[in-house]
Design brief:
This protein has three domains: 148 residues, Immunoglobulin-like, CATH 2.60.40; 117 residues, Sandwich (Jelly Rolls), CATH 2.60.120.380; 75 residues, Sandwich (Immunoglobulin-like). 4% of the residues lie in helices and 48% in strands. The chain has two helices and 27 strands.
């Protein structure tokens, strides 16, 4: 079922960008409630912080950090205190274990409420066994007059917000996983294209439509393509699919496709379109395994054309023969570059052994009409 109207999706997608931690947060005053100390010892290094005087806004203490191993237990000690008067409030500590740039309720490692002075808070927690290796953040907030649960992105009058660095080790090595952000998008080099992947680990939320992890694919359509079909049919979770151009403009998007249930499928026109990005993500917070299929329709290609013109062998490695056509024959690679031209073709064999392996397009031209067929060389 379609979750949100097309108009609302259009407004959301209009601001594709990389996810970032909220930093316009914290107190507008330096007096009264303030985190007095934070300490956490990991397998390498430790955090030892003492507060006061207070700091307006976010206190960036990411130069202080420690390393924690996935699957292991640790204890953080936090003194919720004051740099002035004693007033009722609340405090929370989060660690962004999934490294998606947000502090989720499931990432809370401890909470406090009361009126300073109070005993040192002891937060016992275990790093998730499936946490991915890399550097993330711990955020500690004390909000005077605040009540639990606290918002890690809130602004308020008195209190403090501070970020520390946490490096996760002994977890999942995500160094070989492409597509987490647009800068390292997975290249789609030939069509038809098929990819089976799972976005529930090693991927974060870089696309602001939903909070689910998303994966980017880079695609440069050939000038011979008329349209491209992208399908997530058969995926194990409720998906959302979108396409943007190199400037971030929306080309197409789809939530649920009737023929695919909660999976997504769309077709977009490639006329005049250059480099673009196909983005796979889940609806809401959903994630899991998906199958991505991409294929294209080519200019002048019809069922009648396919029946009349026969190219063999296909796939080919040395030469091809063509029956059912006389005229001009031109061969294009996947990028749309012409690699071979035979004028006034009349049935001779065409040598292809010098060409690199991959998908090509044969374009047949006669009397101003063009037809095309795919050719695989291996």
């Amino acid at each position: 079922m379609q979750k949100i109207t097309t108009l609302f999706f259009g407004a959301l997608i209009a601001s594709f960008s990389q996810a970032q931690y909220c930093t316009a947060v914290g107190p507008s005053s330096t007096i009264d409630s303030n985190v007095g100390s934070v300490s956490l010892t990991g397998v390498t290094g430790s955090i030892n912080y003492t507060g006061c005087p207070g700091v307006i806004g976010l206190q960036d203490l990411t130069a202080l950090g420690t390393t924690l191993n996935a699957g292991s237990p640790y204890t953080a000690y936090v003194q919720f205190s004051t740099c002035g008067g004693n007033y009722n409030g609340a405090g929370t500590a989060w660690i962004d274990f999934d490294q998606n740039g947000t502090f989720d309720p499931s990432e809370v490692i401890g909470t406090w409420s009361g009126i300073p002075p109070t005993p040192l808070s002891t937060f016992n927690f275990t790093v998730p066994a499936g946490a991915q290796n890399g550097t993330t953040r711990m955020r500690v907030t004390q909000q005077e007059a605040g009540t639990l649960p606290l918002n890690p992105c809130a602004t308020f009058s008195w209190g403090s917000v501070m970020d520390f660095s946490i490096t996760i080790g002994n977890g999942i090595d995500c160094s070989g996983y492409l597509g987490d952000e647009i800068a390292d998008a997975i290249p789609v080099t030939s069509l038809p294209y098929n990819d089976i992947r799972d976005n529930s680990f090693c991927y974060s939320n870089q696309n602001l439509v939903y909070n689910s992890p998303d994966i980017y694919y880079e695609f440069n359509p050939s000038p011979l393509m008329q349209s491209v079909n992208v399908s997530l049919c058969g995926s194990t979770f409720d998906t959302f699919l979108s396409v943007i151009d190199a400037s971030g403009n929306i080309i197409a998007f789809n939530d649920d496709e009737e023929s695919c249930g909660t999976s997504s499928e769309l077709t977009f026109n490639t006329d005049g379109l250059g480099l673009c990005y196909i983005i796979v993500e889940g609806w809401g917070n959903e994630s899991g395994e998906y199958t991505l299929n991409i294929d294209a329709n080519y200019l002048g290609q019809t069922e009648l054309d396919n029946n009349q013109i026969v190219v063999s062998p296909n796939p080919a490695n040395d030469f091809i023969t063509i029956t059912g056509f006389e005229g001009n024959v031109e061969l294009f690679d996947i990028s749309g570059k012409s690699v071979k031209m035979i004028r006034d073709f009349n049935g001779e064999k065409i040598q292809v052994s010098e060409l690199e392996n991959g998908l090509y397009t044969l374009v047949f031209t006669k009397d101003g009409v063009q037809f095309s067929k795919k050719l695989m060389i291996n």
